[in-house]
Amino acid sequence: CGPAGSGPAAAQAREHPVLEPVLPAPAEEQNGTDSAKAPKVNCEERNTTGIDRFTLQILNVSQDLMEFLNPNSSDCTLVLFYTPWCRFSASLAPHFNSLPRAFPTLRFLALDASQHSSLSTRFGTVAVPNILLFQGAKPMARFNHTDRTLETLKDFIFNQTGIEAKSDVAVTEEDWEGPLPSVLTKGIDWLLLFSVLFLAGFVMYATIRTESIRWLIPGQEHEHQE
Questions:
Q1: PANTHER family of this UniProt entry (predicted)?
Q2: Which helix (H) or strand (E) covers residue 224, if one does?
Q3: Shortest CA distance to 109 belongs to which of 47, 179, 46, 173?
Q4: Exposure winner among 32, 49, 100, 201, fewest CB in 10 A?
Q5: What residues make up the domain containing 140?
Q6: Please, which residues have CB within 8 angstroms of residue 207's CB and are 6 or more apart in sequence?
Q7: Using CA atoms, how far apart are residues 2 and 9, in angstroms rounded to an integer?
Q8: Each residue of 13-48: pLDDT tens digit?
């Protein structure tokens, strides 16, 4: 699924769902054994004292991701770029919802890429869902697997940070309900609609303009016939 609508970006994402590695980590991610030996990101684990419920936070359209990332800290945050109409985002939702319970010392955020287009461009989000691991305010690694399940996400976090997940965490019925929606939201793709209308208007204008010029030039019609 493309972050701003359907069309060529979405078609390419369906044919090639693996996101291109633009950060240093994914190129070395294939060898799980070597990655597990040497964590690539040294995360400062947050203090969980007094926290009763571990869940992810979804940013609304008026909230900026940079407000939730501390550039002077070495704590780690896993950020999901998604869209509510993308079926890949919907299938990932319950697995991502369960991650905060598996890694209570890490932070988890999600944002609608169609509502935060500037951030999508800044961090190279060419398709959704797109998952980035941040240390402070710096992106360190991109999840680069087509199999988006709780287990593969656990492995990704462990290989990058060396932090082990809680073994008793599994996807529950509550995770299917939220906070990240697992049901597709149908809506009008205004960008695609505007693009189609603009293209149709341009073709009509070019056609009318060409016909007008042809009839204004004397002998033009005879030359075309010859």
A1: THIOREDOXIN DOMAIN-CONTAINING PROTEIN 15
A2: helix 220-225
A3: 179
A4: 49
A5: 57-177
A6: none
A7: 5
A8: 444 333 333 454 444 444 444 444 677 888 888 887
